């Protein structure tokens, strides 16, 4: 993937986020889009080697519009300053978790897990963690997982790595406040991530490096997906 081309375009968009500029540089956008989508196609194939559930996905199933929805935002900039793909077996709008690739100058990352979970399903996930505590801990407290992502509550989104985008400040209603592993019940999502250098996606070696990262996060995601799939 030619990330230099993609990131250069994204920098230009950030500095010129308006429709006249974009229309006059549409060819550059299309070149960046085509390059990114070629990389996503390779990523789907590589992930399918260890997670066959995503093998049926096309690039279109995983990518997003570059235009921002500004209806409810004070920021009326028409275009995003990043480009991403969410490779999820049940689709990018499903609660069923998947693998996210994010390109943004100075903020490239790889993420794995479930980041939008409704309250009833989140309650079910918390109950499942308590009911199968040993299995859960085996997945999220393995040396590989802790080294790569860390524990909940240690890092926040924007840090170099982390587990859990948002957490409750207190114990969720209906759960024991003295539970030994309350940090996992306080999570509002089950998403882990690592930032990567801007040149991470250059060449072809990134595909195997990406796979190693996602394979570490997959057991945690599989645990949560098994609960979510009962509701979807």
Task: Characterize the main sheet.
Answer: 5 strands, antiparallel
The residue fraction in helices comes out at 40-55%
How far apart are the termini?
A: 35 Å
Q: What pattern of helices and strands is seen along the backbone?
A: HHHHEEEHHHEHEH
Throw out a few tags for this protein.
232 residues; 5-stranded antiparallel sheet; 12% strand; globular; 5 strands; alpha+beta
Task: Report on this structure.
Helix 1 packs across helix 3. The longest helix is centred in the N-terminal third of the chain and has 23 residues, at 26-48. Strands 1-2-3-5-4 form a five-stranded antiparallel β-sheet. The chain is an alpha+beta fold. It has helices at residues 3-15, 19-24, 26-48, 59-62, 119-131, 133-140, 143-148, 182-185, 206-228, and strands at residues 83-88, 98-103, 108-114, 161-163, 190-196. The mean pLDDT is 95.
How is the topology of this model organized?
Layout: H1 3-15, H2 19-24, H3 26-48, H4 59-62, E1 83-88, E2 98-103, E3 108-114, H5 119-131, H6 133-140, H7 143-148, E4 161-163, H8 182-185, E5 190-196, H9 206-228
Antiparallel strand pairs: 1-2, 2-3, 3-5, 4-5
Helix pairs in contact: 1-3, 3-9
Brief account:
This protein is α+β, with helices and mostly antiparallel strands and 232 residues long.
């Amino acid at each position: 993937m030619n990330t230099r081309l993609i990131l250069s375009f994204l920098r230009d968009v950030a500095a010129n986020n308006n429709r006249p500029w974009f229309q006059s540089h549409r060819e550059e956008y299309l070149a960046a889009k085509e390059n990114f989508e070629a990389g996503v196609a390779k990523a789907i194939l590589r992930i399918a080697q260890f997670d066959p559930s995503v093998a049926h996905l096309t690039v279109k199933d995983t990518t997003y519009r570059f235009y921002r929805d500004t209806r409810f935002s004070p920021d009326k900039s028409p275009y995003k300053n990043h480009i991403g793909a969410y490779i999820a077996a049940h689709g990018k709008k499903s609660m069923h978790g998947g693998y996210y690739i994010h390109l943004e100058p100075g903020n490239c990352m790889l993420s794995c897990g479930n980041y939008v979970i409704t309250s009833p399903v989140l309650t079910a996930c918390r109950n499942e963690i308590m009911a199968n505590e040993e299995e859960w801990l085996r997945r999220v407290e393995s040396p590989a997982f802790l080294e790569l992502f860390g524990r909940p509550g240690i890092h926040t989104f924007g840090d170099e790595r982390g587990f859990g985008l948002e957490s409750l400040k207190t114990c969720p209603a209906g759960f024991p406040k003295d539970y030994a592993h309350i940090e996992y019940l306080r999570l509002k999502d089950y998403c882990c991530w690592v930032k990567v250098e801007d040149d991470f996606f250059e060449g072809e070696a990134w595909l195997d490096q990406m796979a190693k990262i996602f394979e570490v996060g997959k057991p945690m995601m599989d645990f949560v997906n098994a609960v979510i799939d009962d509701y979807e």
